[in-house]
Amino acid sequence: MGPTLDSSYEDWVRVAEGVVPPGRHRVGGREEDGAGAVFAVVSPRDGSTLASVADAGEKEVDLAVAAARWAFDSGPWPRLAPAERGRVLLRIADLVEEHRSEIAALISLENGKPIAESYGIELRAVAGTFRWYGQLADKVCDEAPHTDPGALALVTREPAGVVGAVVPWNFPLTLAAWKIAPALAAGCAVVLKPSELTPLSALLLGRLVDEAMEEAGVPGGVLNVVAGDGPTAGRALGLHPDVDVLAFTGSTAVGRHYLRYSADSNLKRVWLELGGKSPNIVLPDAPDLDAAAATAAWGIFFNQGEMCTAPSRLLVHSSVAERVTDAVIQRAEALRVGDPLDPATEMGALAGAARLDAVRGHIDAARAAGARLRTGGAPLDPAPVPGGTYLRPTVFDRVTPDMAVAREEIFGPVLSVLTFDTVEEAVALANDTEYGLAAGLWTGDLSTAHTVSRALRAGTVWVNCYEEGDLTVPFGGYKQSGNGRDKSAHALEKYTELKTTWIQL
Ligand code: NAD
């Protein structure tokens, strides 16, 4: 089973050194080189090249879609009893757990996140997601509405077909699992395109899914994985006429492309999980201001701030602003930024040099606009691992709502502190954004919790906590944070069509 969170740094380095990263597409149950083009996957941990990976162009995407099309139109998968499909998903969960250490090490190497998070959070979520949808597969019921006595109406939920899934690099396997597991449970076939920054863990997952399918006697093609960049491989999938559903997680800017690809091709269903600029409101009656500050710091620096739901705008009542901000800064300065492979590390490397440059650009712009830098703002010098991309946790106060640092998604460990004097002002500030993914609220008053939660235009509102939840609850955004919902039974709606059969008796 390999090391766990109790294992030593040396153990994890040994696992990481022993991982053989997969480098070829998975199409129709086989590994394929494609036309021969390759690209390098570079580790943000130390700038080294982890692997050379087959680079998908239109032709490779076409072959992957053809394999999925066959699996859906002619293969056994959509025609299996739902309980049988469920059993395969449970087996995938087991295989993920068997390979948990290896996959966790690979994610920390390709993405830069701490091993405690890859192993403890991401891999647990991936196995848990396959298990949850495996158990759900045969619990979905159709409807027979009460109609005229002379007729029998059936409303049946049918698999939507071939799903293209395109995901980012920040939670490379969790976000893939949130799409693949409900799609497979519903009876769809999938082509997954991971981010070009983190294709290795996805290719490994493809191998495990094929193993589970083979054991169940299901021919390959139910899940295909093609590595490649967005403007080529992603675009080809988005425009493909044989893809029925495109499930995307990524930036709002790229989400717009997928709507265009759909409009320019076959009007495939497009589901979007996009960016955010989430507010975290601290009212003076919060039950525990220290907990509010500690959670605000944890939330923005978790996963290096590379979180769609990052509480990047701390909106704090002016009467407690100084106390809360000072406590957040203390936490920021105490955070252990270090080697992603060290189990004691709390914040790892940003996902590469381009990300580091982009985040530093936001920091420079905030300073120029007049925000006050309270801590951080620069890379760690020396870097915990030479060649890696490590940034100090950064906090700005005296931020005003018009500044770019308060409006644009930074996707890095950068917190903006804004103040308010009334609850109405806090709600207006919170909603003053094009995004609507998540929000936090700290209050000890039950009525305030309900009324403010109702007033917030966000898909998730956390009260007296942040980033809590489990698979039972839906996740997704209002406004330009997207449409549709991942997780929970609602995710099945993305991957199914409703059919009405009206029988005249
Ligand atoms: P991104 O939008 O740049 O890339 C996401 C995916 O789209 C990648 O696979 C990429 O290859 C592909 N892509 C890029 N350009 C493309 C193009 N022109 N045509 C087709 N495909 C293209 O996002 P990212 O940098 O990988 O991830 C960060 C973003 O993801 C942030 O905005 C973050 O908020 C968002 N995100 C959202 C959620 C959510 O559930 N709402 C979760 C995680 C991340």
Automatic annotation (TrEMBL):
Keywords: Oxidoreductase. It holds the Pfam family Aldedh. Residues 37-500 form the Aldehyde dehydrogenase domain. The active site is at E273. Signal peptide: none annotated. It comes from the Bacteria. The keyword Oxidoreductase applies. InterPro entries: Ald_DH/histidinol_DH, Ald_DH_C, Ald_DH_CS_CYS, Ald_DH_CS_GLU, Ald_DH_N, Aldehyde_DH_dom. The keyword Transcription regulation does not apply. PANTHER family: ALDEHYDE DEHYDROGENASE-RELATED. Belongs to the aldehyde dehydrogenase family. This is Aldehyde dehydrogenase. It comes from Streptomyces ochraceiscleroticus.
